[in-house]
Amino acid sequence: MAEYANIIVDISHEKLDKTFQYRIPERLKAVLKEGMLVSVPFGSRRMRGYVMELTDVPEYEVDKIKEILDIVEKGVAIESQMIALAAWIRKNYGGTMNHALKTVLPVREKKKKLEQKTVRLLLAPEEAEKKLAEYKRKHSVARARLLEALIAQGELDYRVITHKLNVTGTVIRALETSGVAAVDSRQKYRNPVEHFKQNGYHKILNEEQKKVVSEILGDYDAGIRKTYLLKGVTGSGKTEVYMELIDHVRRQGRQAIVLIPEIALTYQTVMRFYNRFGDRVSIMNSRLSPGERYDQRLRAENGEIDIMIGPRSALFTPFPNLGLIIIDEEHETSYKSDTVPRYHARETAIMRAKMSGGSVVLGSATPSVDSYYKAECGEYRLLELKHRVMEKPLPVCEIIDLREELRRGNRSILSDRLAEQLEDRLKKHQQAMLFINRRGLAGFVSCRACGHVIKCPHCDVSLSQHKDGRLVCHYCGYEEAMPPSCPSCSSNYIGGFKAGTQKIEEIVKKRFPQARVLRMDLDTTKSKEGHQQILSAFANQEADILIGTQMIVKGHDFPNVTLVGILAADMSLYVSDFHGPERTFELLTQAAGRAGRGEIPGNVVIQTYTPDHYSITAASRQDYEAFYRQEMEYRKMLYYPPVWNLLVVFFASEDERSAFAAAAASMKKIEEKRASGKEKLVPVGPSDASIAKISDVYKKVIYIKAEKYSVLVELKDVLEEFMRDNRAFLNVTVQFDFNPVNSF
Ligand code: ADP
Ligand code: ZN
Ligand code: ZN
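Above: inputs. Below: predicted complex with zinc ion.
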């Protein structure tokens, strides 16, 4: 049991960067936990503070450390809880307190109330059904979809229709002019999900679901708070489980937050929560204006709502008595912030739940290796849903060896098998999706004849081809020249692996001139509505083939899709960081899940140069366990997370020499620390960041592996102070990324 507690004292905002250490009195040792609110002596006063950390290491003279007075039973204003959370973020992920506060607290921005438009059904039920039948007969798919929703709801928010129902303004106008519906507009309180009718209806859970719910609620009612990892195949009914848990928590007067990646936050999902909980639910997404976001926070603070659904930032909804946080698709990398502070929503959610006395449920069909490992170690509790609710067969998966194709003289990006299947679907008027992974464009070098990939001999990540032709490791800076032929089979088919969506579109159109082809990538989705328009068009069967990057893999259900082709599975395998196999497994499993969601079973064709790689074979069998075992072998061997922890330190400057000098000097500091301590620590670098220069700013990186996270936090503090006090490096900024999820 720890002797001391580091406490953030609720004084003025300026001093919040600092924690103060107090001794834990004997009587509190067994009960005091991180996140608890305590009262402490501060100067001559008695103050409240949050416990940030328990430790045995005294920070100053033991005699001078004062004792905690007591645990404060009643919570305090939500704002000070959020400030304490900001302090925790700043300590564990770096950046300034100002950055951290901006992350957790709302921007106090006064915006005038917006005009809101709604669409209302004008027809009587019978007439409406007739009209619906007519639309269906005429194959007016979008009109039918809108009318169907109107029949169910009576009235719908205009933006919900255009954003979530994938129906355009033109279609709404068509219904308006033909007297089917009316568009009303009025000034109103901003609530992004009103005008749904609540029917309170919910499914009766099956045995598997019931078991999961009773395990979690059994703990909950016994006052036990934990983090649960719910592993359940897609369609196993995880969302129903979440709703049941929320219902329970809500009945006790507490609130819940549901995190869902923005890209998966579809109309269907929101609708399910709304049907059950009515206007006690709100959503947050990037389309809301700052004013609307602010309103949502106010509504949460005032007790008008008790369920918030949204991406990462919804975690900071200021609910006064938060009982449950759910993170769906917990493996998603979007839960890690890519700007300072680079916090992970998963760990931050666990801290927030600790502070508010709540539980956390992480859900996924393909859990992150990190979470699964934590479940294995007993830090999280693993619960499983092994069966689909409606036993739809999994799609049939084939792996095509592209080396074999080349040997047979097929040099195209489409294997014979995939081309044959595409032909077949075009004939049957079924739809197909072709998926290419953009992540890989960082430029690894591979052999198309044998599949050999050139890797760093020290780090086992692929080398990246730089503009001048050198091959460079982004972890350690190792370099070599581009070989003239394959080091493994001597063939000349060696080079950078490049194929963009546009090129593929050309090839497909040439090969199948009769096919209607849509392409979805960063170029075609630049405009705000581009993304939705393409998905609507494909959902309305205005195209036969959809070609796209990972954007097309998530969230949307296209029942007429019976073929998914993955053009080059290897592209995510050789991203220049150690997550390659994990991302590949996730992407392939999810892409495969797009096929055969309707009545007709689907096929998946995975094209690859490395058909024997475990991430590819395991994904083709949807075998998570097999993937995980192999992956952990590799992580253990190289001390990558989750076995150890990894910290990336960036040094950025317009002056390349300063950036390098700062990195080199910091490296010395780290080496000193390593030499003096007994902590296990492996620093590597400095080297160029993967994009070594962005708009004239040079970036250098150091990687540090350490067994303990806390050792990395200490190093961060040392380096922050070193950089702040060293006048020579005034023009260099330093940033930290703990356990990164993307490559640099
Ligand atoms: P997941 O979130 O795991 O992908 P969902 O909760 O979305 O799964 O469930 C998949 C489908 O099965 C949904 O259409 C849902 O309404 C339905 N469903 C879930 N649980 C039940 C149940 N107990 N009885 C009937 N249908 C269910
Ligand atoms: Zn070769
Ligand atoms: Zn290396």
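The chain has six domains: 4-104, 114-188, 207-390, 392-440+499-637, 442-497, 645-738.
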